[in-house]
Amino acid sequence: MLMRTDPFREFDRIARELTAPGTWSRPTAMPMDACREGDTYVVSFDLPGVDPEAIEIDIERNMLTVKAERRPAGNAENVRMEVAERPLGVFSRQLVLADTLDTDQVRADYDAGVLTLRIPIAERAKRRRVKVGQGESRQQITG
């Protein structure tokens, strides 16, 4: 029996897996950028089309977890979708934060589809100068 194989079938399967909507048990990764601005770390996540109410940010010990869900737009009965390329589902990202960051002072802003977290460096971890003092005079002990 002669079997015909399609070399692109496996590529199609992988592409479907990568573009399939994420679920709460298997979320899709979200793109991010991270940089340091002075004494603050800034982490930005692309979440276009996500309702701010659908974003969860948790910090447990030094693990930062950002989870968001993009739901399909409410379609009316007489609307038939012709093209649907924008990814839907659950997106998630976890970052291990250094002990030098002040996780009690994290600030989150969402604007134009970008979630921006600002995480300050803890005071105890900031660079500081130690002043060198003059030696104290020594008293001699007589006995």
TrEMBL record:
SHSP domain sequence ranges: 23-135
InterPro entries for this protein: A-crystallin/Hsp20_dom (IPR002068), HSP20-like_chaperone (IPR008978), Small_HSP (IPR031107)
Full protein name: Hsp20/alpha crystallin family protein
Signal peptide (UniProt feature, chain positions): none
Family: Belongs to the small heat shock protein (HSP20) family.
